[in-house]
Amino acid sequence: MTDLIKRDDAPEPCPFCKCEEVTTWLDYEQGEKWGYATCDGCAARGPDVRTNYSRGQDAPWRSEAIAAWNTRTHPAIAPAAIREAALREAANVCLKSADEFYDPDEDGAWEARSNANAILALIGETK
Ligand SMILES: [Zn+2]
């Protein structure tokens, strides 16, 4: 048995599958004490909210369930780690190009090493 009701509240797209179809349901297995918002795409659910056993389409818990859904955090992205990896890679490209010079003291090689050191300094490293 389902209680599928599309709400006008604006649920955020699913953080897992990006589906924009999010609906609220009563949890019949729990005796309708709890309700939740769920993704129609991948069935991600919750968090649960108390329903006060209210089944109506305008029951306050439905808005609460969507509000709770909207607080779900997106998968963790660490911008600092991404920046550091990108800078380290750029420095390695510079160092590799410096190694390609026949004479390590040639201006181009010196400049490439200098660029690498400037990049590494941005992440607190030196070579
Ligand atoms: Zn989903």
Question: Any overview of this molecule?
Answer:
The protein has a 3-stranded antiparallel beta sheet. The mean pLDDT is 87. The chain contains 3 helices and 3 strands; from the N terminus they run βββααα. The relative contact order is 0.12. By secondary structure, it is of the alpha+beta class. It is rod-shaped, with a radius of gyration of 27 Å. Helix 2 runs antiparallel to helix 3 (107-122). It has helices at 60-70, 79-99, 107-122, and strands at 22-26, 34-39, 49-50. The protein folds into 2 domains: 2-70; 79-122. Bound molecules: zinc ion. Zinc ion (ZN) binds next to loops. Zinc ion (ZN) binds at residues 14, 16-17, 19, 39, 41-42, 44.
Topology:
Layout lengths: L21 E5 L7 E6 L9 E2 L9 H11 L8 H21 L7 H16 L5
Antiparallel strand pairs: 1-2, 2-3
This protein binds zinc ion (ZN).
The site of zinc ion (ZN) has 8 residues, from loops.
The rough form would be described as rod-shaped
Q: Compute the average pLDDT.
A: 87
The tally of structural domains comes to 2
Helix/strand-derived class? alpha+beta
The largest sheet has its strands arranged as 1-2-3
Specify the helix fraction band. Answer: 25-40%
Weakly predicted, low-confidence segments: none
Radius of gyration: 27 Å
Element order, helices and strands?
EEEHHH
Residue share in β-strands? 5-15%
Enumerate how many helices there are, as a single number.
3
> What's the β-strand tally?
3
* Termini Cα gap: 65 Å
| Ligands, deduplicated | zinc ion
